[in-house]
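Feature request, filed as a ticket because there's no other form

It would be nice if the structure record came with a short human-readable summary line next to the tokens. Right now we just get the raw output. Example of a typical job, pasted below so the devs can see what we mean:
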Amino acid sequence: MGANILPWDALLQRVRTDQPALYRSWFEALPPGQLLNGQLLVPVANPAQASYLRDFCTEAFTQAAMAVSGHLVTIAFVPPANSPTTIATSRSGLTIVPLNPDYTFDQFVVGPSNRLAHASCRAVCSQPGSLYNPLFVHGASGLGKSHLLQAICAEMLRANPTLQVAYISCETFVNDFVRAIETGGLPTFRDSARHLDALVIDDVQFLANRESSQEELFHTFNTLYQGRRQVVFSADSPPSEIPTLEDRLISRFNWGLVAQIDPPTRETRQAILQKKARLRGSEVPLEVLDYIAERVSANIRLLEGALTKLITECQLSGKPMTLETAREVLPSYDGQNNRPLQLGDILQVVSQHFSIAIKELVGRRRTRSVSTPRQVAMYLSRHLTPLSLEEIGAQFGGRDHSTVLHAEKVIDAERGTNSELSDTLALLTRRLLNRK
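Raw output as currently delivered:
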């Protein structure tokens, strides 16, 4: 069978109808594809774009192609034959994290608490490397920093698919750097990081107590900045408040714009819930959304988690989506205290119970009198907060995520045979959940 042209405009119209956000981000500027032996070959700019579309967009594109053509069509996103290989394929290079297709500017709900951060992120996309370089976004966990950073990358690639853009966590940067040293791949690592058009690093508080990694990032930053290439960072605190961060890095982070994200207002929380409900295809009464927004005030992850829990319960049990059901399913949100539990709350309660100073809990002493309470605090942080392993480790003196995971496993194993420890965990959990 020879090559023929698929009704491309009709296919794109179908994608635009079914997946409007996906269409605007990726498909609007794609050149026409060709049908060859039952396979639709879609030309893309480079292997990085091909890899992303293959991982996240194949299903939507396949369904649209079948609807238009009337028969089964397989999809292949094809980069130019002479296109350079993506950086992410290099063993000793930088491991680039695939973007979340839901993390676009269109899906971000703007309010007074995040307006500056949102506007600065959009501005960076219009003039990368010149306006707000570097851009540093900070705020507590769960407020949308990762969403904005990935939206920057998605928008840059949408506007110019040939750009070399990398979104990574700071932990990934550190791990890749250490691996490059161990395997003799440091030149490749530096080449992959320092020849990017934009480097976007999430959670740079992970640099705490990592002197060699700080030095490596310092030189990487200088190379990119001098080449007028965009650099974006995020953290849970402003540069000057990141523990043990070198002064020269603090200075570099402050060269551009530092934008803070605060907890969302009640109106913004309602808007977020409305958007998330629509995306899930669920009809949620306004009084139910208002009930959730009133009780979950400071963390978008917890806000979305409460909505997800309610929708799932209604779908599985057949219960009606009513205010009464919400009160039944979400009783833990129906109290006087609607401030989400913070890691600092856990440190304070554990410190008081074991009569150990907080600085000891987050310090470096490894005696059993300190290590067990520290592991208990880490365990509670994992089970009572939405923080990731990396975020918890960073607040415990810049420890590695594997340390937190080990602590969780140790406590989990011991609580089954140690009734005293089990009772202690239950007591501390009640104190934390019932705190005033």
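Something like this underneath would help us a lot:
The CA atoms of residues 379 and 412 lie 8 Å apart.
The chain has 20 helices and nine strands.
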